[in-house]
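Duplicate of #3305? Posting structure anyway:
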C-alpha cells in the first residue's frame, strides 16, 4: 500500500521519512476509549454514540430528549449533535448550514453531555465553576471531533524509515486530518529520538 502522505523530518541532523497511511481497522472511540461525555443518539440507519435504552417513541422532539436527560441525569454541560449524511457521514455540534442551508442531508441526531459527579470524580473538583464548565465543554467538543473523524474514516497511522529505507517505528490510531493536531508527527518524532537513544 502506498502512503497517502510523506513527511520529511530531520532529527539530530539525520533525515527520516514519515509515511502516513489510512488506518484500515480503527477503533470506535465511543467503545474503545474512556470518555468524559455521554453521547445519546438516534438514527434509522446508523448505530451511533454510546449505548442507551431510550427509544424514539418516548419523545416528540429533541428538547424533550434533553429535558429527560436533565430530569434523570442532571448534566452540567449538554451539546447538540448534528449528522451530515452525503457520500459519507460526519458529525458536529453546530450544524451544516454552511454547506447545506436547505437541510436536505443533515439534522440533529442526539446530545452529548457530562454529569456533575463525573467531573468531580474525574478531576477532584468540589465545585464546578463556569470556567470549569467551559473546560468540560472543550473536552466534549474534542470527543465529538474524534468521533466524527472515525465516522469519516479519517484515522491514520505511520511508519518511520531511516536514510537507508529501513523501518524503525510505526503506530496507528491518530484521529483527524491534521497530523500536527492529531499528534501523529510529534509521536513519530519521539519514536525517532527513542530509536537514536537506543542506538547510541
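Output from current build:
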Amino acid at each position: 500500500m502506498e502512503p497517502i502522505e510523506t513527511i520529511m523530518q530531520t532529527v539530530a541532523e539525520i533525515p527520516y521519512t514519515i509515511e502516513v497511511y489510512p488506518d484500515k481497522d480503527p477503533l470506535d472511540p465511543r467503545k474503545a476509549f474512556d470518555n468524559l461525555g455521554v453521547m445519546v443518539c438516534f438514527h434509522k440507519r446508523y448505530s451511533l454514540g454510546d449505548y442507551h435504552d431510550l427509544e424514539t417513541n418516548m419523545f416528540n422532539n429533541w428538547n424533550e430528549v434533553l429535558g429527560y436527560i436533565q430530569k434523570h441525569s442532571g448534566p452540567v454541560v449538554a451539546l447538540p449533535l448534528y449528522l451530515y449524511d452525503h457520500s459519507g457521514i460526519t458529525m458536529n455540534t453546530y450544524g451544516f448550514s454552511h454547506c447545506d442551508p436547505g437541510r436536505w442531508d443533515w439534522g440533529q441526531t442526539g446530545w452529548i453531555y457530562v454529569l456533575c459527579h463525573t467531573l468531580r470524580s474525574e478531576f477532584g473538583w468540589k465545585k464546578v465553576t463556569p470556567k470549569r464548565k467551559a473546560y468540560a465543554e472543550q473536552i466534549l467538543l474534542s470527543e465529538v471531533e474524534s468521533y466524527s473523524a472515525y465516522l469519516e474514516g479519517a484515522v491514520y497511522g505511520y511508519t518511520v524509515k531511516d536514510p537507508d529505507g529501513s523501518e524503525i517505528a510505526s503506530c496507528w490510531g491518530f484521529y483527524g486530518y491534521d497530523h500536527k493536531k492529531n499528534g501523529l508527527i510529534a509521536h513519530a518524532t519521539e519514536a525517532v529520538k527513542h530509536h537514536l537513544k537506543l542506538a547510541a
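Confirmed duplicate; merging threads. The chain has two domains: 5-26+155-199, 29-152. Residues 29-152 form one domain.
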